[in-house]
Structures are given as structure tokens and as C-alpha cells.
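Exercise 7. Given the encoded structure of a 474-residue chain, write a plausible sequence.
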């Protein structure tokens, strides 16, 4: 069993369900002879693993299964058993994350990359899937590979899992910067440069583009000798001057002999604080209009899905009939109307971004979950109480010892499941939500809420109302 030695510290996402293997995934593709080299990256939250204590150390044991699929067919897989050790459990914090990657040789096409992490001590598992559209690299014209974001990058002479072209590239699958992550690194490859022995140079320019297509940073502009048909680019970029939002890192390559141009982009996020909104309605609408005009048809379609929690029934029916052009116009008008109700696109999509990173599981994105919906609509709770399955000490404080049937039902329901209790102190004088852990890890179903108009399971409603009222205090 191999001990995993590389641990990076990231203070952006701290996860929400300790005891479940919590991780993010990303990918990048590169040319490898006549085929494509596909790298799948993972970043596993260290404190989501269970550590077994012995006299010499505390050890976590886990398995990562990578699968490349088309439909229900698994075309290739890579499974590995890994371990992590510490002499002091108190040194393990939510900001520490364990990177990993697996590589596959594939051809052009559409695929699903599935990653399952299993904690081999408590047998809990967490699965994520992403859809991939892999394109073949042209062999006759200038081309740029995908961009791999990294948390660290430096030259080496050794070989290893994270080594590319004599560089160690530690993949950063979170793609989220802020907090103590003020600098990012990247790796990319260039193909089909026109070689020669003269003094011609190729030019590579690195820029950061915001959500409305504006260049907000030019972090690199180089002219390098053009002696070979291929080259690579490794560099870093700072997010110090970037505000919370969505960005694209763009590399622009120009061949000094042929004049051909090629480029590649990589989306990343900056999360520093809740984004500021424009209070001037004309300025706000102008920015929203430019942002929506810059979105691809796929991004328009996705945003139309996201607004389901705000759209009225007649608007939902209208959305189903829209083409991309109609979707753009609809979104512009929709967000202009919502701004008049003090509901702002920046805040709403910021919350979407937050819950997608925090609550996604299996085939379900975070915004589609009950916890995700609640955070999107009501914001971050004032406090959260998390209770693990079988926490009997906490259950003993829940009821008034009246031996009522409802109390017994409540304690039985709670003792057989993990759950979360969310408290909001500034809504309707104080409200509570209860989310019950379901079949899949990180999957919690809303079973009770004291908020007017919110759903409560009838069994839970009767059971929870029998509990000691102090349970609702935070």
C-alpha cells in the first residue's frame, strides 16, 4: 500500500459532511502520438477521511476508482489503493487536500469520466461524474493543448505521477482561488510550430478575462526562439487584484514564421467575499446585458436551468420553448425585473457556485439538492448543527421524556440517520430546517422546516413537534 505524501493547503472550501470522502475533479487533454492523452485530476479533502489509530500512527486507507465511460459501458478504468498517515489528528484541518490523477489514451469523442472514492475504514464512498467532449488535435495547423491548473509547479529530473516534460505539476482540481490561495500555476503544450534555424520567435500572451469578456489582467507576454515544432508553457498568475467572480485564463499563441494563431482557455473562480452589486439600475442592467451577450449557447441553457427557483410557473413554461437567442433576451429582462425586487444576479449565481462546489454528488449538481436550494433562496444559515448516525448522547437531549409515541418516533428517525439542522435567526423571528442523510454520500433530503410555506414530511412534522423546544435553539 502506497503512502500518499503530497498534501496541499486550501482555505476556500471546507466541505460539509465529515466522514464522507469529499473531493473535486477536473481534466485536461494533450497530444500523445496519434492519440490523445486524457488526465483526470482529483483533490480529496483530508479531514473527510476516517483515520485508524495505532501505537505508531493514525492511518487513513482509501481507494480511488477512475472510469472512462460511453453510455453504460466502461471503456477503461484505473483503480488504486492509497493511504495517508499522521502522528497527530489535531493537525488535520479542512484546508488540507490530497491531489491525485490518472491518465488514459483515448480518441476523439464524447465520454463520461467517473471517479469514486471509497474510505476503506468506514466503507463510505462518494462519486462524481463529468461529461467530456474530446477533440482531436490538428496535425497541420498551430494548436494549443488544454490548460492544466496547478497548485505547485517546478522543474525536476525524476519521473513520477505528477511529472510532465521534466516538470512536477501538482493538479488543482478545485479551480477556486482566494483565501490563502493568492497565486495559481498552469501547464500547457504547443503543437505544429514552424521550426527553423533563423532568429524567428513565437509569441505567447497570457491574459485573464472576466465574465463579460473583458481582459482584466495581462500577466505574461513572451517572445521565445522558434527552433522546434512543439513547445510548452509553464507559468504562474496572481489573483490579488481580482474580485469574487468567474474568470477565464487565456493563452494566445502566434507562430513567428507562418503567422498562424491559436489559443486555449480555462475557467476558474475567485471567492473572496460576497460580490458587490451595482445600485444604479442603468449600470446594473448594462453590465448584465454585456455579460449575457458574452455567454455561449450552452451557458445560456444552463443559466435558464439555474433560475428555476425564482421563475414563476408561466415563466417556467416560457423557458421550455426558448431558443438560444430567445433565452438571452429572456434572461436580460428576467434579471432586470428581479433587480427591482432586490434579487441580484451576481448574488444568486455566487450562491449557485457555492452549493455546486459544496453539495454535488453522483449525478446531481449542488443546486439541485435540498440543501443547495435552501442556501440559494435564504443564504448561509446563522448556524448549522451536524449529527452523525448513531450519536446517542445527543439524542438523549432531544425529547421531554413524556414517552409519547411521537417522541419515540422522532428519536428513532434521528438515531438511524445522520442529519443537519440549519438555523436562521433573522427570518420570521427564527426558523429551522432539518435535512436527513440519504442513500448517497453528501445527499441530504429536507424532512422538516418551520418556515412558512416550506415542505415538512408529515411523520417528521408530528415527531419533531414532540421534541424539547430547546432543540430549536442554537
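Solution.
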Amino acid at each position: 500500500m502506497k503512502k500518499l505524501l503530497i498534501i496541499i493547503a486550501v482555505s476556500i472550501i471546507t466541505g460539509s459532511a465529515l466522514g464522507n470522502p469529499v473531493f473535486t475533479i477536473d481534466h485536461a487533454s494533450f497530444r500523445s502520438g496519434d492519440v490523445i492523452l486524457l488526465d483526470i485530476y482529483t483533490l480529496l479533502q483530508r479531514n473527510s477521511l476516517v483515520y485508524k489509530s495505532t501505537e505508531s500512527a493514525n492511518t487513513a486507507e482509501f481507494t480511488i476508482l477512475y472510469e472512462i465511460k460511453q453510455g453504460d459501458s466502461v471503456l477503461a478504468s484505473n483503480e488504486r489503493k492509497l493511504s495517508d498517515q499522521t502522528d497527530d489528528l489535531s493537525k488535520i484541518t479542512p484546508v488540507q487536500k490530497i491531489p491525485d490523477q490518472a491518465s488514459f489514451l483515448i480518441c476523439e469523442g464524447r465520454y463520461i469520466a467517473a471517479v469514486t472514492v471509497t474510505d476503506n475504514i468506514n466503507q463510505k464512498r462518494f462519486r462524481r461524474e463529468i461529461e467530456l467532449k474530446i477533440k482531436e488535435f490538428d496535425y497541420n495547423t498551430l494548436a494549443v493543448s488544454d490548460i492544466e491548473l496547478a497548485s505547485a509547479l517546478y522543474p525536476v529530473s525524476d519521473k513520477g505521477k505528477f511529472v510532465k516534460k521534466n516538470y512536477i505539476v501538482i493538479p488543482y482540481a478545485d479551480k477556486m482561488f482566494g483565501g490563502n490561495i493568492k497565486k495559481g500555476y498552469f501547464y500547457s503544450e504547443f503543437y505544429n510550430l514552424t521550426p527553423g534555424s533563423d532568429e524567428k520567435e513565437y509569441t505567447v500572451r497570457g491574459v485573464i478575462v472576466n465574465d463579460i469578456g473583458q481582459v482584466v489582467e495581462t500577466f505574461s507576454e513572451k517572445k521565445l526562439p522558434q527552433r522546434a515544432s512543439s513547445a510548452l508553457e509553464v507559468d504562474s498568475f496572481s489573483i490579488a487584484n481580482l474580485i469574487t467572480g468567474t474568470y477565464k485564463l487565456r493563452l494566445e499563441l502566434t507562430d513567428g514564421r507562418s503567422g498562424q494563431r491559436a489559443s486555449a482557455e480555462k475557467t476558474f473562480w475567485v471567492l473572496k467575499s460576497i460580490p458587490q452589486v451595482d445600485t444604479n439600475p442603468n449600470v446594473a442592467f448594462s453590465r448584465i446585458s454585456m455579460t449575457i451577450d458574452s455567454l455561449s449557447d450552452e451557458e445560456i441553457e444552463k443559466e435558464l436551468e439555474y433560475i428555476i427557483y425564482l421563475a414563476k410557473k408561466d415563466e417556467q413554461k416560457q423557458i421550455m420553448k426558448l431558443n438560444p437567442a430567445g433565452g438571452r433576451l429572456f434572461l436580460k429582462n428576467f434579471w432586470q425585473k428581479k433587480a427591482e425586487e432586490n434579487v441580484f444576479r451576481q448574488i444568486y449565481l455566487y450562491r449557485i457556485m457555492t452549493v455546486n462546489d459544496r453539495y454535488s454528488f453522483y449525478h446531481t449538481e449542488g443546486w439541485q439538492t435540498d440543501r443547495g436550494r435552501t442556501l440559494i433562496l435564504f443564504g448561509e444559515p446563522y448556524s448549522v448543527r451536524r449529527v452523525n448516525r448513531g450519536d446517542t448522547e445527543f439524542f438523549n437531549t432531544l425529547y421531554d421524556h413524556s414517552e409519547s409515541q411521537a417522541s419515540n418516533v422522532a428519536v428513532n428517525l434521528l438515531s438511524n440517520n445522520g442529519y443537519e439542522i440549519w438555523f436562521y435567526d433573522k427570518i420570521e423571528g427564527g426558523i429551522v430546517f432539518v435535512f436527513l442523510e440519504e442513500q448517497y454520500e453528501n445527499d441530504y433530503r429536507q424532512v422538516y422546516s418551520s418556515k412558512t410555506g416550506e415542505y415538512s414530511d408529515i411523520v417528521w412534522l408530528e415527531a419533531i413537534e414532540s421534541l424539547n423546544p430547546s432543540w430549536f435553539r442554537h
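Remark. Confidence is low (pLDDT under 50) at residues 1-5, 11-19, 397-404, 468-474. Students should compare their own answers with the one above.
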